[in-house]
Amino acid sequence: MRKPDTNIRLAVTGIGIICSIGSNAEEVWAAIEQSRGGIGPLTTFGDEKFTTDIAAEVHADFASDLFEHGSEMKRLSRTDLLAIKAAGEAVSQADLGATTPVPRERTVVCTGTSTGGLLEGESYFFERLIRGAEKTSASRVLQQPTSGPSDAVAKTLQLGGGVLSNATACASGGAAIGMAADLLRSGHVDSALAGGSDALCRLTYSGFNVLGAVDPAPCTPFGADRKGITLGEGAAYIVLERWDDAVARGARILAELGGYGASCDAHHPTAPVEDGRGAAAAMRGALRDGGSMESEVDYINAHGTGTLLNDSAETRAILSTVGSEVPASSTKSFFGHTLGAAGGLEAVITVMALQHQLAPPTLRLYSRAEDCTLDYVPLTPRPMAMKQALSNTFGFGGSNVSLLFRAS
Amino acid sequence: MSKSSRVAIEGIGLVAPAATGSDQLAQLLTEGRSGIEMVERFDTSSLRGHKAGLVTGFQAKQFIAPGKMRRMNTLSRQAVAATRMARTDAGMEENPYDAAEIGVALGTTFGPVQTSVDYLREYVEKGSSLAPPQLFAESVANAPGSHIAIEFDHRGFNLTFTQRESSALAATMFACSQIVKGTVKAAISVGVEEINDITFSVLDKIGALSSSGTTAEESRPFDRDRNGMIVGEGAAAFVLDGAERSRGSAYGFYSGFGIARDRTASISNWGTGADAVVRAMSDALLDAEIAIDDVDAVWASANGSLAGDRLEAIALRQLFRTAIPPVIATKSYFGEYAGAGALHLATAAIAMRRQWVPASLGFERAESGLELPVNKVGRPHPMRNILVNSLSAGGGIICAVISSQP
User: Fold this and answer.
1) What confidence tens digit (pLDDT) does each residue in A282-328 have?
2) pTM (predicted TM-score)
3) Residue A322's closest CA among A290, A356, A288, A296?
4) What is the mean pLDDT of chain A?
5) CATH entry, A10-407, from 3.40.190.170, 3.40.47.10, 3.60.15.10, 3.40.50.360
6) B109 touches chain A (CB under 8 A)
7) Is B2's CB within 8 Å of A182's CB?
8) Average pLDDT for residues B144-171, to the nearest whole number?
């Protein structure tokens, strides 16, 4: 069995993203530069009432131009469609200007999602309750499994390297990128499309509310008055290739994926361990995987959800790993917590931060909490020299993933 | 690429239809007895299919403390129980590892569908603000993996793979890659699945399940009269360790993996691109550094579906040409999705240790032009390497090689 060789450098040659602040990388970065968030009144579930009523939704009509024929998207879930939109952008960019395109036959799709097509699954369930199983069409529920986005992306983009889906709660998107890295480093595939996708659904919107984990106002990660998360939706993918292959293809290299680390708190089904040791282990793992030192990290795109427990634990993890001087911001303050997609979105944001040498800010952070003592880049973006950056994603079940990127 | 190495299967634990633990599964295989029965858990009278491989009589309290059990759904209970059995089988209690050096990779196709249904039922009856938070916490697909980590203090990676029929093999592939990479010393690889009335009825409605018609409702992998699959559930867990640390009691050794996708497949069915299946099988053999004629048995993915079985049969004939080794189809023992594919893996590991191949229940005669040496009778058979296939609807393909030697 071939060992994933960490001496093999990995290039990011394409990025694609859709979320509440934009339908592509250019729009999303413009919103970051302008400190323009995308949180507003919840509209997805019509008149249904919840304890809180805001979200970071994708309002753009993004799906209508994805297919030539409307029939092709008939059975796809909203999560699938978000994934196809972002993945398509990433592959297009990876092909742009290259002498040869991304090798479709040897490209694997690795997707993280928390609920896949559950939004459509819920509609099926409610209709089934009212009309009975026999009169309820099963066609829309077929894409409910969390393998749906990978399969839909691979089918739409005609990719033949394999499909690998994971549903590791909010760490899913980051985990997908890590898996892709090792498949490339062990030579099983020649390129990878990796990221995450999640649409809002009732179960998660209601569920986080009943847990008391949702802030009634737009979230303020690391803030003194923070009360929880704001739920969001979106998708993002990166195209990964072995560095030498990307150079040989004449592709434009946007950044380097140095490595990744994964760990588990083994502490509680929904709460992080207070001292942040699990998160710290993932960050150290990423640095070890990438052959970097703690002192070489210039910026951290934090998980920064806005919950009391996460932000405190993550702060401790960062302090114990890279110290107190490294700026760490939460872009969830722009587009909410997109759950399984978060690792993908925040990886793309980190790549863009390295490209533009600009640290995205944490919005609405007028006063940081007593237990959050780092530099969180409050309110406005900060131009700064960055060679290496970590992107953190942590999830229910204590699963932690950290990604290390380097400027190209 | 770096030097290759192998991963030992040191312990197996399982909760299967008609079997708890690897000894009972071995007995089931020896007797050629299927765990598939008429469904009694829910009403199938309005459906075409009526059979499944369901777990009955499993006593979680034999494996989990009552206080902890109350916080776990069925998937979590079975996954934790299977892991406890696997750890005992591997002697892990006597040879403890550092907690940070053990990872958990779990596979599940549908995840905790029943827990989501239970939550949504409360959502409808009590309102969105009064649904039970405990059910929400258990509705996430990685809840079983989380419980395993908490129960046994495993602090390495903890990831949940959801690649349809290939979920358990995907989890195993990742776990093995991390052991050879050195990010963990050992890993627990688990597959777990639960079949409920909704999953069953949706699969029935789209015509995926076997049903009575011109032929009886039955699981018949590769048979010319097959008319669909029969579904199953349960869990299987494996303790995986570096081959160099194996203490001589391993079931077998993972030596290679291959991955590909059939580009002719639709998003929810098998396609016709046998070349992709051949590519994944060949990649696994290459990864294992073995030749085609080093393969002594094939653990086929076949589940009785018309398209999937045909695709695999064509690919096997294409790869092996005239020298096809015995082909074993195990889905007729406990159904497709059983342990998200992990029970299929368990039978291969048990067979490797015993050097004995089970009968492929339900197979009588092959489709014309797709003849394969499908093994019909349980018998001793010397095996150096087993090629294990998993072809999932949607086109995903993962293959593995289990070898007898480290």
Assistant:
1) 999 999 999 999 999 999 999 999 999 999 999 999 999 999 999 99
2) 0.98
3) A296
4) 96
5) 3.40.47.10
6) yes
7) no
8) 98
